[in-house]
Structure formats: structure tokens, C-alpha cells
Write a structure and sequence with these properties.
signal peptidase activity, Signal peptidase I, Umud Fragment, subunit A, Peptidase_S26, transmembrane helix, 42% helix, EC 3.4.21.89
Length: 201
């Protein structure tokens, strides 16, 4: 017979073991760290996809074919920065219009640079994964820019937020990000307040 049975009093509440409480606290902080890491990753991607290109006049493009594998497989996001054709060098990766003034573009590597007697430049390009150079030499006015940086697998995200989708995806994404950040700050502050109250005698 227990002491509670003998005296008729109510059972005494059992406090959690210190090890259990420490484990819960560890998982709590681990969750906060992981959440913060995800938030920072999303913000970094937003900066690379939207802010940097817009601020520098660069063009975000998605690699759709395998012509530049293995360095730039399909789905790679490339940021193409405007460049003076006279500053281009052998080995540079550039984006050019298939036909001057038309929207279709190709991103390949410069294999040769030719100059006419009048000083006009033309460029011979070839995909890293292609056995032959492109059929026609590229004129200076066709060049859209030189590759600045690339991010693997993110190109399809860029395609999704381009065009009409950008009008609603960006505002919704910004609201979600700030809401999530606010939730993280509020939950952290609330946990700190509860901890302080629990520590008071």
C-alpha cells in the first residue's frame, strides 16, 4: 500500500526528468535553427533570382538543352550580364540572339573571334557538349551578355516566376516570408518569457 493510499491524499504530481526536458529543449532549438536556415536559403534565392538581376540590368535565363553539359545541365539558372562585345575573350560563355531583334537566344562558349578590315567583330561559338561549332558566326549586335554566375536546378523556378506569374508569385512569396519570420520571432520571444516565468520562485 502506497503512502497516498494510506493517507487518502491525492497523488503527488511527477515532474519530468531533467534528461527528458533537456531533450525537448534540444529538439526545440534544432527546429529553430533549421527553420532559420530554410528562411535564409529562400531569401538568398530571391536575391539571386530577382534583386541582383534587376539591380544590375542582368538577364536571368534557364538552360533548357544539354548543349552546355556537364557544366550547365538543363534546369540551371544562368545570370547574363550586359557586356561590350570588344571586352569578350576566347572561352567566355555568352548569350546571343539566334536572329537579331528576335526573342530566341542561345548560350554557348566563344571559340574564335574574327575582325573584319572595317573593325567589325564576329564570333564563332560552340556548345561544350557539341562536336561542331554553331552554323553561323554571331554579330556583335546579336550578343545579349556574358555569363556572370549560375545556380544549378533553380532555372525551372525562374521560369515559373517569369511573365504573368511574377505579378502574383512575388507578392505572395514576400508575405509568406515576412509572416514566417514574424512567427519565428514571436515564438522565440514567447518561449523565453515562459522560461523566465518558470525559473521564478
Amino acid at each position: 500500500m502506497t503512502e497516498a493510499d494510506a493517507g487518502g491524499s491525492e497523488p503527488t504530481a511527477v515532474t519530468p526528468a531533467p534528461a527528458v526536458a533537456a531533450e525537448k529543449s534540444l529538439w526545440h532549438y534544432l527546429g529553430l535553427v533549421l527553420s532559420a536556415a530554410v528562411l535564409l536559403l529562400v531569401i538568398a534565392l530571391a536575391v539571386m533570382l530577382i534583386v541582383v538581376p534587376k539591380a544590375t540590368g542582368s538577364i536571368p535565363l534557364t538552360v533548357l538543352t544539354s548543349s552546355m553539359e556537364p557544366g550547365f545541365p538543363p534546369g540551371t539558372l544562368i545570370i547574363v550580364r550586359p557586356v561590350d562585345p570588344s571586352d569578350l575573350r576566347l572561352g567566355d560563355v555568352i548569350t546571343y540572339q539566334m536572329q537579331s531583334g528576335k526573342p530566341g537566344v542561345i548560350t554557348h562558349r566563344i571559340m574564335a573571334i574574327n575582325s573584319s578590315s572595317a573593325g567589325d567583330l564576329t564570333f564563332v561559338l560552340q556548345g561544350d557538349n557539341n562536336s561542331e561549332p554553331d552554323l553561323e558566326e554571331v554579330l556583335a549586335e546579336q550578343i545579349q551578355g556574358r555569363l556572370w554566375y549560375s545556380v544549378p536546378f533553380i532555372g525551372f523556378v525562374n521560369s515559373a516566376v517569369n511573365g504573368e506569374n511574377r505579378a502574383w508569385i512575388i507578392p505572395v512569396g514576400a508575405v509568406l516570408l515576412f509572416s514566417y519570420a514574424g512567427y519565428m520571432v514571436a515564438s522565440g520571444a514567447l518561449a523565453a518569457v515562459k522560461k523566465r516565468r518558470g525559473a521564478q520562485p
